[in-house]
UniProtKB/TrEMBL annotation:
It comes from Oceanirhabdus seepicola. Coiled coil: none annotated. Its main location: membrane. It is found in: Cell membrane. The gene is mntP. This is Putative manganese efflux pump MntP.
Length: 188
């Protein structure tokens, strides 16, 4: 997998956390740089650690399914991307706008929830023999930067980008899954 592919996947994975960061920026009344940094660090660390966990869990099984690894990656990335798009398009009537996004418990739950897809991507990285430390660092850094910016965008622009960011992230993951499948089938 190329450096550019990992960057694109990292941006796709960061979109869930970016969308939540925008929402956090909307909710924080007296926003400070340290607030944005706290949120960005949580999301970045979780997004970086989850692919490692997925990779470790799956590396033991990769030798058994190397002949179908491209299909596994295609299905996993496609599923995650379609799920992200679906969740972005459905109505969110259970909006927890009364929650404090700086509360450690809430921030941890949000970080885990937005990084589950990164765990699954870590599984596909094992099948593709990606340098997981390198990929996890890229994912963590890109997520951190996107979330830091997202908090301030939320403060400035409100909810304008929330759903669009999730849809964009989902589309990126689906397209990366298709690209992996096409490459392994020899069409590129």
């Amino acid at each position: 997998m190329t450096f550019i592919s990992i960057i694109i996947i990292a941006f796709g994975l960061a979109m869930d956390a970016f969308a939540v960061s925008i929402t956090s920026g909307i909710l924080i009344k007296d926003l400070k740089v340290r607030h944005a940094l706290k949120i960005a660090l949580f999301f970045g660390v979780f997004q970086g650690v989850m692919p490692l966990i997925g990779w470790i869990l799956s590396i033991r099984f990769s030798k058994y399914i190397q002949s179908i690894d491209h299909w596994v990656s295609f299905l996993l990335l496609g599923y995650i991307g379609i799920k992200m798009i679906h969740e972005a398009l459905k109505n969110d009537e259970d909006d927890d706008t009364g929650k404090n996004p700086l509360d450690l418990k809430i921030l941890t739950i949000l970080s885990i929830a937005t990084s589950i897809d990164a765990l699954v991507v870590g599984v596909s990285f094992a099948f593709l023999e990606v340098n997981i430390i390198y990929a996890a660092l890229i994912i963590a850094i890109i997520t951190l930067v996107c979330c830091f910016i997202g908090v301030f965008m939320g403060k400035k622009f409100g909810e304008l980008f929330n759903k669009k960011a999730e849809i964009f992230g989902g589309v990126i993951l689906v397209l990366m899954g298709v690209k992996i499948l096409i490459e392994h089938l020899g069409y590129i």
